[in-house]
Sequence to fold (399 residues):
Amino acid sequence: MQINRNFLSLKENYLFATVGAKFTAYRKAHPEKNVIKLSIGDVTRPLAPSVIAAMHRAVEDLAHAGTFKGYGPDQYCYGYEALLDSLKGSYARKGVKLSSGEIFISDGAKSDLGNILDLFSKENTVLVPDPVYPVYVDTNVMAGRQVLFADATEANGFLPLPDESVKADIIYLCSPNNPTGAAYDRAQLKAWVDYANKLGAIILYDAAYEYFIEDPALARSIFEIEGARDCAIEICSFSKTAGFTGVRCGYTVIPDTLEREGVLLNRLWARRQATKFNGASYISQMGASVVFSEQGEREIAENIRYYRGNAAIIADCLGKLDLRYTGGKNSPYIWMKCPRGMKSWEFFDYLLENANVVGTPGSGFGRNGEGYFRLTAFATEENTREACRRITELLDHHE
Fold:
């Protein structure tokens, strides 16, 4: 018996597990301290009332023999028609027409970002931006693929564009980006689409934060870009859009004409899911099915405005301290330059010990993240304001 030794090439701990362990250790050592977490992208606002009502109805369905649901429908990989119709309507309002068979319901974007790799040979070369959400890299390292990096730096606004000298088979893009908060405009996305089509590559497009986009110059779906149906798979989630981090529901869109080596990727994914996945729960799907209703969109927009307000509070705080940052607009993330030339983990410890505020060290997202720090807008407004007050007091006093 042999283990998959590719796992031994990973860092010992997942980034957010390390942050969590440090947070827990500090709390245990200092139980009297009120530590504020602006580190992980977990939401704090309650689910929208219409979502709660739909989930209650779904629970009631399960209480009666006549309406009971077991396994989900076989067609479209266990997505219920109500949810598929809702998603088609949402995409139509972005100018994107989809069929039900192009939408695959999942238990969240993180799962599909890793699982989608089942469709591709381990011989493929992968291109990811650096810094980057660790899942993109780790899942490919686990499979033994070669991973190349597109440098995202302050010089290019943390939005790298294609390098014609680099040849890749699988390209990860996330816009608005995690961790930097930067977002591609349509012209920049078109450059990536043209590059992928020229190479015959596949773009795996993470659109988990698309609902934070306010600027009409920015696309909310890769399929708004001409040519994307020939090269892109879009992976999205209700976690940030509707607060489903604990509910678990997402979706992946694979155009029914997208093919490589004469094989339709849509059918490959359907076959994979039928074998390895039994679908998201009926309760979570019914809750998700009303998110993009007229009432649901009004309600989730209120929560999104709340988090945008938190992002603006953090951005204003950093601006007054004259600290460089990206994000804070069209994104729930703020990517700041560490003060006084500090390293990322050095600033993490400094902020935790002196201001009792937790963020995420930029170096955990890649080589280009060293010297940067990520803060999130998902705390309560009260905690966000208090964290900013502490940060201001600390850095004003020690600068």
In short: The longest strand covers residues 125-130. The two ends are 57 Å apart (CA to CA). The first helix runs from residue 15 to 29. The domain at 69-293 is CATH 3.40.640.10 (Aspartate Aminotransferase; domain 2).
